Amino acid sequence: MSVQAPTAPAPVRRRGDVVFASLARGAGITILVALAGVAIFLTLESVPAITASPEEIGGDNILVYVWPLLFGTLLAAALALLIATPLSIGLALVISHYAPRRLAKPIGYLIDLLAAVPSVVYGLWGIGFLGPRVYDAYGWLADNLGWLPFFEGPPNGRSILTASIVLAIMALPIITAICREIFAQTPTLHQEAALALGATRWEMIRMTVFPYGRSGMVSAVMLGLGRALGETMAVAMVLSATGVVTFNLISSVNPSTIAANIALKFPEATGVDVNVLIFSGLVLFVVTFGVNFLGRAIAARGAVKEER
Fold first, then answer.
1. pLDDT 10s per residue in the chain (308 long)?
2. Do 174 and 272 form a contact (C-beta atoms < 8 A)?
3. Domain extents for the chain?
4. Is 241 helix (H, G, I), strand (E, B) or coil?
5. Which letter, b or e, does each residue of 41-78 get, where b requires 16 or more Cβ atoms within 10 Å of its Cβ?
6. Which residues of 147-164 are buried (b: 16+ CB within 10 A; e: fewer)?
């Protein structure tokens, strides 16, 4: 006679758990629906721009119109990340591992406050303070490194490099805050074991903190990139845009960005011009979505490797 094994009792679902799960599920569905609605709206409104003749959009093909804007958007965002990423990681390490606690907390609060500053204030700071003060530095770059295409000059404070510095400062608190939390979550036993084996503090960070937080660092950089890609007013106020494709970073001849171009031209646009601007917004939407998707994929791949 076989004895039947006792079955485990079914887990009791409390009313609060059911309500919370329903609200979370509803919030996720709402976000997906809103995202799909934005994509559908941009696509439908972009059709007249895609089918319009070159004469209706200023004598250029729609792709010829958007390409300099896309180039300027990617260039400004890449320069901003190139500046902000090492600064953000360094600040996060100082707050989490180097500075005394009584000093680390105020520094963390000050960095977090940078995220609350309106973009218009950053634009005013960039055009009124930063631009005039980097002119001499740009002149030195043009005189000594002018043989490079990046610093041909003539120097001008309202350049793509100045706009990228402003974007870097705007992205810095986002990357720093996420990296700081990730570094603080590194298992203490791993750090103490590395120090006990004779590693210096930097070697301990390199062997334990960075591998543990690699996927989170990638996610932080991608979020900072999203901020840089979509910034509007600060870039529109600082940048002296001419709508060209150039790698000269310090002159007054600069490519514009998609977001800044929409902000400047949308109030006066009519007819097909509105659809052209919406099409450029669709391009920015696709680029931002692709960047975030790539960041999530890299972060997930890193998490899987860490589990193995």
1. 455 655 656 566 677 778 888 899 999 899 989 989 988 998 898 888 888 777 777 666 788 888 888 898 899 999 999 999 999 999 999 888 888 888 888 888 888 888 888 888 988 998 888 888 888 888 888 888 888 888 887 888 888 889 999 999 999 998 998 888 888 888 888 888 888 888 888 888 888 888 888 888 888 888 888 888 888 888 888 887 777 888 888 888 888 888 888 888 888 888 888 888 889 889 989 988 888 787 777 767 665 555 55
2. no
3. 30-307
4. strand
5. ebeebbebbeebeeebbeeeebeebbebbbbbbbbbbe
6. eeeebbbebbbbbbbbbb
Contact of 214 with 116, CB cutoff 8 Å:
no
Q: Which amino acid is at 14?
A: R
Residues 28 and 49: their CA atoms lie apart, in Å, by 32
Residue type, 122: Y
Structure token digits, residue 104: 């680390």
The answer to whether 208 touches 191, Cβ cutoff 8 Å, is yes
DSSP H helices, 115-200, are: 119-125, 131-133, 135-145, 160-184, 188-196
Superfamily of domain 30-307: MetI-like (1.10.3720.10)
What does the chain come to in residues?
308
C-alpha closest to that of 185 among 156, 160, 217:
217
What amino acid occupies position 135?
A: Y
Is 272:62 a contact under the CB 8 Å cutoff?
A: no
